[in-house]
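Regression test case RT-17, inverse folding.

Input:
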């Protein structure tokens, strides 16, 4: 079972977590910005609205604001600009979310997942561990692939992954992403949408896993974790329609790669 879920993870481990990558995932801000604070959630409707409005929401549910975890939590707000941070000490809010004690919960729209940090895990948390938890688990409607998000992607219950493999510096990148996001909404809860910057060093192995050549990019690649089935669509002009057609075809069991190459069974993993 583990083998089925591990191709990207193996890619990850063979690359290692370079400090560069860790640094890249930290979002830097230009110039001075006002210190950001988590949003106080004082009643249940406010909390529900806050969660529903964010692709990724992280809420600190605290019964006691004096514990050291609270300041670690506050320290994250500045660092992760694409994540909505909330905080609540309201007993009704806590009981609505079944929180007893203190807890940090990550709510994710893309696969409707809730991840809890509580008990000893919470008490022993420091800034490094909490950052790592957030980096790994912040999956968006379109998640950018890196060695950290690779772990979160493979922990998701969603078993089909669609990758757009593209040079992020191309002038058509923004427009392509816009269309890719549009298609992602159609498959929310069924397929995880992933953007792979083909220029990034770590992407080389992803590209060769799918037997693609640099010259065939941008390309779409789709992969199902349970049976290792995959397909590619090289030379893609990204449109919501193209993406939808490719996904629908794969879901119906139609494989295009059998048209563009007849190949022997590939070895799963190169170690
Ligand atoms: C993060 O936020 C910035 C600015 O709002 C946006 O341009 C970027 O696409 C976001 N990244 C992700 C992964 O959502
Ligand atoms: C709280 O727990 C109950 C019972 O297990 C469950 O039905 C409910 O959905 C939970 N509430 C939330 C907000 O997850
Ligand atoms: C990516 O695109 C940029 C802008 O067009 C180009 O300068 C760069 O050479 C490309 N990188 C690769 C590896 O193709």
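Golden output:
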């Amino acid at each position: 079972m583990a083998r089925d879920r591990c191709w990207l993870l193996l890619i990850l481990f063979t690359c290692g977590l370079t400090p560069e990558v860790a640094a890249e995932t930290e979002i830097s801000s230009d110039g001075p910005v006002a210190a950001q604070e988590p949003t106080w959630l004082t009643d249940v409707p406010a909390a529900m609205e806050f969660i529903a409005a964010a692709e990724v929401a992280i809420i600190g549910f605290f019964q006691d604001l004096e514990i050291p975890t609270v300041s670690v939590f506050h320290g994250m707000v500045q660092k992760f600009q694409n994540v909505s941070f909330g905080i609540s000490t309201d007993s009704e809010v806590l009981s609505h979310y079944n929180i007893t004690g203190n807890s940090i919960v990550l709510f994710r729209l893309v696969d409707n997942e809730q991840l809890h940090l509580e008990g000893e895990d919470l008490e022993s948390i420091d800034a490094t561990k909490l950052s790592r938890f957030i980096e790994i688990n912040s999956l968006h409607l379109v998640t950018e692939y890196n060695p950290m998000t690779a772990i979160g992607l493979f922990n998701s219950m969603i078993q089909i992954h669609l990758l757009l493999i593209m040079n992020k510096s191309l002038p058509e990148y923004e427009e392509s992403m816009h269309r890719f996001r549009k298609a992602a909404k159609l498959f929310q809860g069924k397929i995880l949408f992933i953007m792979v910057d083909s220029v990034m060093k770590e992407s080389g192995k992803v590209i060769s896993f799918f037997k693609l050549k640099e010259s065939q990019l941008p390309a779409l690649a789709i992969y199902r974790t349970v049976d290792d089935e995959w397909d590619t669509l090289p030379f893609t002009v990204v449109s919501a329609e193209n993406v939808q057609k490719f996904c629908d075809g794969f879901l119906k069991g139609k494989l295009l790669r059998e048209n563009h190459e007849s190949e022997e069974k590939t070895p799963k993993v190169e170690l």
